[in-house]
């Protein structure tokens, strides 16, 4: 069934003889149900999300208006003989029961049932819900259902392959769905869902987008081909071999649905690859090269076959050129082919395989790296463009220098190694932002193109912030050079000189990053040519997607989990004029960072302009009074919060802690306005962490982790009913509502940090018992580990998770227990942390995601050898070695703690970190 509900209607309360499975195609709706034990359930679902109600479970579906005016969804029942007569409707039943019986059953007067409808309603008008799910759901004495009836499949990661993606959801991920399994498949233009079959269950196919061609093989020389378009339904009996080909020019998306609890398929490619080669050769007369290309891992979706197409184009060109060399139309056709094949060298060793495959000389130029590091692989520039193309480009009208033009100009920087993104002649007014949003003179001075000059040695006092001082890596002879100066709380800070930072960076084997580049194929997914609107400049969006992919590879902890959602969001933002300008500016910052892991003065200028613009809009939003429609006001607040957090994600890696805190100051009141709790009431952290809105989870996570890693209080009081059961629930929902994929912070540990913080604010409990309880459950807390992606990266991510586990224990002992760094428990955990860190080779993964755990462990670190290890691991991360970044500020904080405690001859306590942060940031 394909059903549409308006936002002012609901389906009748009902149940079925069969199980019901639903897929949201558009809009949003609220589903509710009660099981046989009186446990209730209420949830909102969005496009791509699922629900499943077992046989006989009463439920209903209500349209919402937060994303559209109602919803459209697909209903699947697990019995092919199902009919509408198998649906039991509340009004139908009530109308056939005497009023006297109803009165006895409900213990009310019989007149209460005078207006019961005399026939079933199916769909009926209803008010749009204004309360959140938590507020609207009645509290049941039996509690809520143990297995959710919904699954946020829209947030679940897909398996990304060369020709598209596949997302399998069965009872292993959606536990309640015992009779229906589904695979959501996308196929790029020209690609195919590989030749395969399903061994035990028929496939019921629903086509969501695009055009498809399917050929089904039924044995005994029987085969038939079918064409499908969006909205069509297909059927393939069990064991029938088939493929699904995208014959359109847009991405094709469809659902493979099965009556089973576990999804199964058999790949022809994998079958042949795992069969003895001689046997395959005897059957199919294949040569050894072809057999060697068979894949032992299921391809699932296969790309359009770039190599064969490319060779065919060259053959066509050669043959036509012999006979039609003077034909103008043919020459135009050749030009189009040239434009299609003019690509970047694939950098294969020892020769470019693209050029060898086409028997053409390789004419691509290499780019020499100006930065440090002799191990970096040479990269190549794109092939030179034709004279006609260059002429057409220079003829474009460039007279108007408004924001749209400047944003567009950022797409075409000068072609040179030291090319700049933004010309110095551009004034702040030219951005269309206004003089009131111009960065301060200090900010502009910091972005000027002056060479870095080492500062003289300075001894700051407690009243003097350390933010203007630089940091150095200490040589082995200077590890013990910290001495008291005779002035209380006055310690030497050694400035950073360029050679010291360069030396540390050159020791970092960056060749691993460059050689592997993108081992998980994030760029391939993000940069796939999208279907663009005719009003969008077709040369801009691919550039922006490439910039976002560089950023995701460099700074997102598990980019594969969000790469599809990121791509869709970028395309959506790019569709509007205002969104396009902002997105182009953000993309340029991302490109700078993705190339060098730092941004230059012009990048800082762009980022400061973006931050100022967001700050102004945030202030304007908070000045507007809340809307009478509370739900609408919350949605507006979430949109405003999204803008702030998008810029904050850039600032965290490129600007000092003080700038990040300023952005958090702007975001805090917006976040509070978006929460459902009344003013003055603590915020329920579990509800926020499992909230559908990413922005609420994002801010809460940043707030708590910032508090932990700086010793500063959180912006708000959180209510945290921590338990092992809650951790298990978060583990089950990790791919749906977690935020670990972004920064690497395990969500369960974020909850535990907040719980410890709450206990410290409410003294009086038995601290020893609480610590013992946490020690007992900590090993039982399961943290999700991605099943897909590069194996080496997965190992690095496991190291990050274990480092966080040690960091939690240090925080527990030093904050809740009040222990110092000499406490035996603290020393034991710190030793385990260092053993784990030394057991892993320095590399960007995991080191780039270990800044916060290193700061926590660093407070408890006493030995100079251990401090030297932590210092080098942090400064090996390029953005941490750069003065004026959050990572570098974090290292300054540790140096301050180590210097003060050594000068005073005492072990560190947790409050030392807060003092260091105030000295570094000035606040």
TrEMBL record:
Residues 375-395 are annotated as: Disordered. CDD domains: cupin_OxDC_C, GAL4. Keywords: Manganese, Metal-binding. Mn(2+) 2 binds at residues 196, 198, 203, 242. SMART domains: Cupin_1 (SM00835). Mn(2+) 1 binds at residues 14, 16, 20, 59. InterPro entries: Bicupin_oxalate_deCO2ase/Oxase, Cupin_1, Fun_TF, GPI/OXD, RmlC-like_jellyroll, RmlC_Cupin_sf, Zn2-C6_fun-type_DNA-bd_sf, Zn2Cys6_DnaBD. The keyword DNA-binding does not apply. PANTHER family: OXALATE-BINDING PROTEIN (PTHR35848), SLL1358 PROTEIN (PTHR35848:SF9). This is Cupin type-1 domain-containing protein. It comes from Rhizoctonia solani.
């Amino acid at each position: 069934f394909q059903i549409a509900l308006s936002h002012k209607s609901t389906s009748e309360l009902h149940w079925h003889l069969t199980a019901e499975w639903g897929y949201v195609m558009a809009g949003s709706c609220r589903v509710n149900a009660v099981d046989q034990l009186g446990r209730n359930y209420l949830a909102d679902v969005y496009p791509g999300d699922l629900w499943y109600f077992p046989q006989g479970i009463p439920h209903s579906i209500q349209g919402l208006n937060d994303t559209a005016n109602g919803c459209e969804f697909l209903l699947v029942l697990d019995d092919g003989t199902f009919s509408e007569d198998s649906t039991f409707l509340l009004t139908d039943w009530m109308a056939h029961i005497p009023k006297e019986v109803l009165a006895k059953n409900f213990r009310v007067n019989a007149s209460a049932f005078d207006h019961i409808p005399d026939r079933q309603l199916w769909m009926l008008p209803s008010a749009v819900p204004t309360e959140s799910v938590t507020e609207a759901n009645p509290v049941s004495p039996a509690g809520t259902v143990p297995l959710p009836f919904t699954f946020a499949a829209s947030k679940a990661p897909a398996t990304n392959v060369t020709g598209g993606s596949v997302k399998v959801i069965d009872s292993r991920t959606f536990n309640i769905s015992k009779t229906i399994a589904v695979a959501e498949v996308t196929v790029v233009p020209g690609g195919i869902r590989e030749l395969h079959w399903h061994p035990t269950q028929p496939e019921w196919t629903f086509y969501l987008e695009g055009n498809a061609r399917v050929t089904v093989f039924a044995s005994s020389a029987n085969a038939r081909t079918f064409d499908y378009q969006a909205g069509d339904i297909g059927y393939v009996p069990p064991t029938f071999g088939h493929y699904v080909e995208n014959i359109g020019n847009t991405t094709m998306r469809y659902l493979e649905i099965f009556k089973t609890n576990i999804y199964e398929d058999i790949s022809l490619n994998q079958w042949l690859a795992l069969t003895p080669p001689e046997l395959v050769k005897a059957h199919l007369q294949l040569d050894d090269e072809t057999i060697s290309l068979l894949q032992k891992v299921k391809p699932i979706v296969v790309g359009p076959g770039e190599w064969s197409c490319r060779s065919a184009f060259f053959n066509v060109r050669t043959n036509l050129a012999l006979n039609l060399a003077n034909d103008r139309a043919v020459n135009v056709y050749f030009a189009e082919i040239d434009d299609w094949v003019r690509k970047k060298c694939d950098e294969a060793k020892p020769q470019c395989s693209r050029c060898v495959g086409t028997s053409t000389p390789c004419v691509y130029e290499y780019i020499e790296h100006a930065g440090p590091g002799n191990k970096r692989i040479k990269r190549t520039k794109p092939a030179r463009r034709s004279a006609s193309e260059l002429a057409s480009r220079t003829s474009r009208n460039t007279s108007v220098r408004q924001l749209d033009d400047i944003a567009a100009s950022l797409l075409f920087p000068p072609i040179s190694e030291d090319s700049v993104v933004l010309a110095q002649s551009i004034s702040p007014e030219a951005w269309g932002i206004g003089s009131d949003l111009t960065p301060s003179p200090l900010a502009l001075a910091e972005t000027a193109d002056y060479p870095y000059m080492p500062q003289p040695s300075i001894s700051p006092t407690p009243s003097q912030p350390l933010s203007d001082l630089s940091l150095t890596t200490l040589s082995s002879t200077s590890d013990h050079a910290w001495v008291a100066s005779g002035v209380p709380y006055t310690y030497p800070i050694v400035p950073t000189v360029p050679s010291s930072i360069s030396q540390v960076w050159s020791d970092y084997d960056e060749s691993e990053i460059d050689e592997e580049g993108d081992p998980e194929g994030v760029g391939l997914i993000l940069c796939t040519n999208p279907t663009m609107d005719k009003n969008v400049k077709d040369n801009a969006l691919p550039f922006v997607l490439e910039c976002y992919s560089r950023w995701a590879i460099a700074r997102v902890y598990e980019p594969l989990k969000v790469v599809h959602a990121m791509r869709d969001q970028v395309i959506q933002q790019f569709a509007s004029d205002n969104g396009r300008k902002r997105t182009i500016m953000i993309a340029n910052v991302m490109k700078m960072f993705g190339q060098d892991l730092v941004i230059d003065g012009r990048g800082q200028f762009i980022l400061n302009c973006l931050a100022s613009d967001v700050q102004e809009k945030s202030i304007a939003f908070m000045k507007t009074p809340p809307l009478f429609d509370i739900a609408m006001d919350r949605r507006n607040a979430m949109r405003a919060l999204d803008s702030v957090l998008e810029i904050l994600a850039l600032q965290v890696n490129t600007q000092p802690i003080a700038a990040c805190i300023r952005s958090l100051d702007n975001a805090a009141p917006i976040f509070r306005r978006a929460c459902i709790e009344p003013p003055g009431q603590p915020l329920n952290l579990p509800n926020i962490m499992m909230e559908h809105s990413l922005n609420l989870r994002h801010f809460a996570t940043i707030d708590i982790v910032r508090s932990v890693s700086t010793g500063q209080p959180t912006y708000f009081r959180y209510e945290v009913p921590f338990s092992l059961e809650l951790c298990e629930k978060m583990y089950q929902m990790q791919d749906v509502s977690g935020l670990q994929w972004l920064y690497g912070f395990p969500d369960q540990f974020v909850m535990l940090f907040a719980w410890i913080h709450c206990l410290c604010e409410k003294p009086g409990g038995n601290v020893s018992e609480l610590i013992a309880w946490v020690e007992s459950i900590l090993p039982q807390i399961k943290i999700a580990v991605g099943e897909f992606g590069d194996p080496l990266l997965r190992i690095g991510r496991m190291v990050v998770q274990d480092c966080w586990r040690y960091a939690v224990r240090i925080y527990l002992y030093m904050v809740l227990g009040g222990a110092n760094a000499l406490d035996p428990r603290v020393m034991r955990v710190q030793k385990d942390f260092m053993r784990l860190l030394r057991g892993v080779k320095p590399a960007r993964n995991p080191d780039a995601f270990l800044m916060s755990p290193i700061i926590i462990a660093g407070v408890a670190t006493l030995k100079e050898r251990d401090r030297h290890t932590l210092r080098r691991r942090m400064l090996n991360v390029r953005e941490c070695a750069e003065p004026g970044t959050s990572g570098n500020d974090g290292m300054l904080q540790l140096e301050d703690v180590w210097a003060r405690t050594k000068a005073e001859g005492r072990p560190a306590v947790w409050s030392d970190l807060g003092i260091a942060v105030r000295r570094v940031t000035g606040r």
